[in-house]
Known about the structure:
2 copies of one chain form a homodimer. By secondary structure, chain A is an alpha+beta fold.
Amino acid sequence: MSFTPHPLDPSLDLELVRHVPVSPAAVYAAWTDPDSVRQWFAPRPYSIPVCEIDLRPGGGFRTVMLSPEGEQMMDSTGCYLEIVPDERLVWTAALTTGYRPQPSDMPFTAVLELRPDGSGGCHYRAVAIHQDPEGAAQHASMGFHEGWGTVVDQLVEHLQGSS
Amino acid sequence: MSFTPHPLDPSLDLELVRHVPVSPAAVYAAWTDPDSVRQWFAPRPYSIPVCEIDLRPGGGFRTVMLSPEGEQMMDSTGCYLEIVPDERLVWTAALTTGYRPQPSDMPFTAVLELRPDGSGGCHYRAVAIHQDPEGAAQHASMGFHEGWGTVVDQLVEHLQGSS
């Protein structure tokens, strides 16, 4: 399948674009292995003690996030929609395991796109797709850009530390 | 990919199972061609003047249903999730084009499963997957079994009439 980037709707979508000095395959592996996700997916000092991944279209995932004091901040579930190893992951918070609809305060679909940069690194793009401008504004004000940016730094650190 | 039927959750899912005397390929074609859908998808005397289908994972669809008096009863949109020609279609009303979440009074995901019966006919199974028992009960009381059953009869009639 040829690569078609998600066409951004600036009124409804939030986008994070980065260049990272690790390969698309390494980034993809870090996003899809629960042991790895626990290491970098929460902006520190928050932590992810629980990560469950059923990596197939229709498979569910779950992450639990704790505050530094050990308080549960989030218990997030969702459903994988598209899986193209080393290149593209799509999942949504509007569905859970088996594509079952689930209620959500801020339903969004996420697209992760990874492209080789020709010299071993990766063009990294994450897009959060919302149902209305209010949802996008709420996600932005909750710190989408800072949060998703911080975890990319932590992801790279994790990969460089473990290589 | 081997065929794995949707595992039914009787408290959340509604199921229609039928045997029909037309092939899985013919049923699949009738479900995926807009001109065909317009012929059988609304229980008569209701009608479907508008049917739009973008048949790919993440592609949207839309149907508009009119009463016999010409009043618009429904304008339904959704998103295709899985497409296995002649065998399986999965779509959801919880998302629209490009996997974008959309508000819905009664969000459900639908699975259509088609299996050859060995003598030219088809084992036909449709499952509607809801987020809670209330959603399933609401869909049942709106006439899921009667409505989805009637349109299977109309689908077969359409295929036999056009063959």
